[in-house]
Amino acid sequence: MATIAWIGLGNMGGAMTARLVAAGHRVLGVDLNPAARAAAAAAGVTVVETVAEAVAEADAVFTMLPKGEHVRAVYEGADGIWANAPQDALLADSSTVDIDTSRHCHETSQSLGFRFVDAPVSGGVAGASAGTLTFMLGGSSEDIDAAAAFITPMSGNIITAGGPTAGIAAKLANNMMLFISLLAAAEGSQLAAGLGLDPKTFWEIARVSSADSWAMRTWYPVPGIVPSAAANQNFDATFQTLLARKDVALAVDAGTRNDLSLPAAQLALAQFDRLIEEGLGEKDCSLIVKLVSADGAVDGYDAAVD
């Protein structure tokens, strides 16, 4: 089996590497967070101290990091991926980043003789744990075919989006739609409660009706209805508000650059900004549900517990 270097062992990266280990691959992982390192080691990942050490003998290198500047940092410099990975290693970025960062990784990798694929994912922590993520791939057809061999244990769907940066372009549009639909789930759930409907009964109606969405099925912001929802755990993050805000901002910026009006995305961005201003940026993005009520009280969230 392959030797895979993995940079970024957070909620998504940790679960994804566990799938690779279970498939028989040797995975060397790097992360700054001690808890993330410990969890990855418990799942069978060989945790090392530096990027250079992780990539030195890698057949493939994956990055799963919060922002574009983090991706650039681990690729560049004397201790980075480009300086230390074998020339025949396949490089893939599964982070959600700006188009310019993805293009930079493609173009610089090519100039240095590396293969590179932008390989963002959709499906959340639940999909990462279950190995059912959707991968959206951008790059040459040959590089995408090579990437698929490594991606298969983590995926339910592998879709070629197009050439370089097409994968990340698809991810930005997809996540924008996700967070807009999360607003709908937040407002709809609270309107139903205000009108006296039983929360579970309403969810069952909406689930098989025209209001259905991935956000409603997976992140429904009412406790005791959807097992994977952060509402069951005092809105502890499965997807941090800070990261959701970053993704929507990237989509809004892309829209601006293409002369598009995106008012619903702007509204989602404003809601996440409100949570962050309240000091809740590290809570789950579905906590925007608290902004629906006049007093900010919502079932499933107790500020005193934090």
Q: What is the number of helices?
A: 13
Q: Tell me the count of domains.
A: 2
Q: Give the CATH superfamily of the largest domain.
A: NAD(P)-binding Rossmann-like Domain
Q: Regarding CATH, which class of the largest domain?
A: Alpha Beta
Structural class: alpha/beta
Give the low-pLDDT segments. Answer: none
Sketch the topology as an H/E string, one letter per element.
EHEHEHEHHEHEEHEHEHHHHH
Shape: globular
Mean pLDDT: 97
Helix content: 40-55%
**How much of the sequence is in beta strands?**
5-15%
How far is it from the N-terminal to the C-terminal residue, by CA? 43 Å
Give structural notes:
It is built from 13 helices and nine strands. It is α/β, with parallel strands linked by helices. The protein folds into two domains: 161 residues, Rossmann fold (3-Layer(aba) Sandwich), CATH 3.40.50; 136 residues, N-(1-d-carboxylethyl)-l-norvaline Dehydrogenase, domain 2, CATH 1.10.1040.10. The strands form two sheets. It has a six-stranded parallel sheet with strand order 3-2-1-4-5-6, sandwiched between helices. Strands 7-8-9 form a three-stranded mixed sheet. Helix 8 links the parallel strand 8 and strand 9. The protein is globular and about 60 Å long. The model has no long low-confidence stretch (mean pLDDT 97).
